[in-house]
Amino acid sequence: MPDLDPDRTLALSYVGARHRPALEALWRLDLALGAVLAGGRDPMLSRIKLVWWRDALEALDLKPAPAEPVLQAIAVAVLPLGVTGAELSAMEEGWAVLLSDGPLTAEDLDTYAAARGATLFRLSARLLGGRESLVGVAGEAWALADLARHSNEKDADAALARLRTLPTPPRLPGRLRPLGMLAALARRDAEPNRPRGEPQGSPGRVWRMLRYRLTGL
Question: What contacts 179, CB < 8 A, 6 or more positions away?
Fold first, then answer.
């Protein structure tokens, strides 16, 4: 299964042991969807693979998981906690929009941020036993910052510009602060004078995450 990046690894370490397997399985699903784009040079083939993932996730509501480690982890750790395969499959739309020809439009970015970021964070909040309505904007911000980190300069500029128009996410309660830690990094990445591509896991990022974990700010 794909490895979590250093930022998400640190956030996950602040999740209680009871909830950690489910959240890790969900986040690894997001990475698996992203790997389809990262590992493919043929947009049509990438679309076919994303459709496979969407259909496979929807099928989890009807039958056992196939012999695929990410899907098996979802079936074991996530579905029993009240998240459906159909809900998970909604993230596919966010990743698929990145396969559009040419530069990403404002509409593309909004679709991506909502379908990938907001969905991921809302389902994460459900797994953590928190209010999903608190984390939608945080998820959108995090997804846009993550896109900027992995995009060409033009798309990265557009993603960060869109991020800066989002309202500040609300202060999150303790059980949801691992998500807030990631959203705090998104706001850090969007600072106008912040150098691009700050290494994940660097001391400044770790300190920013820990400050949010302790204060919610």
Answer: 11, 121, 124, 125, 128, 135, 138, 139, 172
CB 65 within 8 A of CB 71: yes
Amino acid code (one letter) for 28: R
pLDDT band at residue 40 under the 50/70/90 scheme = low
* Domain chopping of the chain, boundaries: 6-215
Instruction: Give the torsion through C-alpha atoms of 115, 119, 145, 3, to 10 deg.
Output: -110
53: DSSP letter: H
64-96 core/surface letters (b: 16 or more CB in 10 A; e: else): ebeeeebbbbbbebbbeeebebebbbbbbbbbb
Q: Please give the average per-residue pLDDT across 31-52, as a whole number.
A: 90
Give CA angle at 92 (91, 93), nearest 5°. 90
Q: What pTM did the predictor assign?
A: 0.96
